[in-house]
Amino acid sequence: MEEHFITRGEDGGKLYLRRKMPAGAADLCPPVLLVHGSTLPGSVAFDLPLDGYSWMDHLARAGRDVWSLDIRGYGSSTVGEAILNSDSPIIVADTEQAIEDLSDAIDYICRERCSQKVDLIGWSWGATVCGVFASRSDRHVRSLALYAPQWLRNTPSPLVTEKTLSQASRIVDPERFLDRWYLGLAPAIQSIVTRAGWKQMLLNALATREGQPMSVPNGSIHDIARFWMAGRPLYQPESIAVSTMVVVGTDDKDTPPDIVQALYGRLGSSSKRIELLEGGTHFLLFEPVREAFFELIEEFLSTVDAGNGE
């Protein structure tokens, strides 16, 4: 595992990238970049070793050069000194700022790998960030995978509350976060993840570090309220031309399948595919269906490798 830091020019903050790759991966496929959602940083969400391996491990074992990004204010990525020292709270890590971070990360990865393009994979808000980026320019994007993507909704979001809209950041309470996921599982699935120790591993990953609880920005939540819940799409899916895969769990309450299917119907790509994973929730990468999910993504990338997904 490699750790990389990029210094942002506009404010001096640092972006954190994590990399995993097998020997020889640089000679095979374009790099893969994973982009996280509104709560868990990429270094936690994509590299949690359940049953001994994470999603990043799975991709690396398949021969991929895989990277994850922590957007500014998440995980090991920082915000600038001016924001830290401000007398009043400043909203950071909204979608536009996240796109800037994604652009910086792609430029860095392409330089490191001497590659022209990356395969982009986004989860939830991360799917929005990747979707907006690909809709504006696909010069550096070979393919796009949207996992549980956001879209227009007329139902409440569990993240949008009076409190989150009034504050610049929030403390992630591990027990409440776990309840949001665990209580939405079918009893049989709850039993599996408990016996396997996955629930405890996620709890441990969310625990305090150096005595400090996990704090994350609320910029993305403000965007949910301003755009998705207000009938204002942040991008036009019709403008996306690259090969695109969309995946959502049938039991996803955060981004329900009906809104994901509405997004899929508007995608402009001539090569697109959607998969609904039975029994999966918004957090299916931590659930028994994770292996089927990982295999779907690898199958999609392999199809693009073969030139059949362009």
What does this structure look like?
- It is a single chain.
- This protein is α/β, with parallel strands linked by helices and 310 residues long.
- The protein has one domain: Rossmann fold.
- The chain is built from twelve helices and ten strands.
- The chain has helices spanning 42-45, 55-61, 81-84, 95-113, 125-136, 162-166, 174-182, 187-195, 198-206, 219-226, 257-266, 290-305; strands at residues 2-7, 14-20, 32-35, 66-70, 118-123, 141-147, 169-171, 215-217, 243-249, 272-277.
- It has an eight-stranded mixed sheet, sandwiched between helices. It has a two-stranded antiparallel sheet with strand order 7-8.
- Helix 4 (95-113) crosses helix 5 and helix 7 runs antiparallel to helix 9 (198-206).
- The longest helix has 19 residues, at 95-113.
- It comes from Paraburkholderia unamae.
- Residues 56-288 form the Serine aminopeptidase S33 domain.
- InterPro entries: AB_hydrolase_fold, AB_hydrolase_sf, Hydrolase_4.
- Keywords: Hydrolase.
Order of helices and strands: EEEHHEHHEHEHEHHHEHEHEH
Domains, number = 1
If helices are DSSP runs of H or I spanning 4 or more residues, what is the number of helices?
A: 12
The end-to-end span amounts to: 30 Å
- Under CATH at level 1, the class stands as Alpha Beta
Largest sheet: 8 strands, mixed
Under CATH, the homologous superfamily reads Alpha/Beta hydrolase fold, catalytic domain
